[in-house]
Amino acid sequence: MEDTTETKKEFATVMWGVAEEWGGKISKPGLVMRFRSLKKYSIDQISRAGSWLVENRKEKYPPVPTTKEFIEAINEVGGGLSVKARAGCEADKVLKKLKDWGREAQPFFYDETTKYLMTHRWSFAQLDTDHVKDPGYVWFRKAFVEAYEEMESSVTLHLAGGNAPQIPEGEKISSKRLGLLVSTKSMEE
């Protein structure tokens, strides 16, 4: 995390916001200590961990989540990896599942973005068919990483609920916008 005034303000906002959720308070020296302890993580990782804690923390004591809880939340949310690295790991999991189970594999994944992509954008049956054209799945890995990064940067998925992106009711969406590989005539209308 950068040692800039803007980053420190954002860090303080996250810490005070999370503390307020359980009626806790953080002193300025405590805030400085937390900043030093969490400096190796990005402000984005800390913000996501804070949101995760607000949504998922079960303990009410201590009223302020500890630094250790933040580190565990960072690891829970993204394993401390960049979005691109996490996307690559998730693509590996998809390909391993395809190798182990073939076209009959089910899209059961812990990662909500992967679950969404393998439910709504690709299917294991489709990947199994495409194996003939590209035995190394080079195209899939590249497309999956791009789609994963796009979803992570533009759509907030509820970590607990795994909701799909919200599309205004009645709006027509082309298959190109949804990023589907195979379009149908009815989808283009």
Structure description:
The structure is a single chain. The protein has 189 residues and is mostly helical. The chain folds into two domains: 5-78; 83-188, no CATH class. It has helices at residues 5-21, 28-37, 43-56, 67-78, 83-101, 112-120, 124-130, 138-154, 175-178, 185-188. The chain is elongated and about 60 Å long.
Q: Gist?
A:
The protein is an all-alpha fold and 189 residues long.
Number of alpha- plus pi-helical segments: 10
Largest sheet properties: none
Which radius of gyration do the C-alpha atoms yield? 20 Å
What gap, in angstroms, lies between the N and C termini?
A: 47 Å
Helix percentage: 55-70%
The helix/strand class is mainly alpha
Shape: elongated
β content, as a range?
Answer: under 5%
Mean pLDDT: 76
Order of H and E elements: HHHHHHHHHH
Q: Pick out the low-confidence regions.
A: 155-189
Count of individual domains: 2
Number of strands: 0
List the helices and strands and how they pair.
Layout: H1 5-21, H2 28-37, H3 43-56, H4 67-78, H5 83-101, H6 112-120, H7 124-130, H8 138-154, H9 175-178, H10 185-188
Q: Key features?
A:
189 residues, mainly alpha, 10 helices
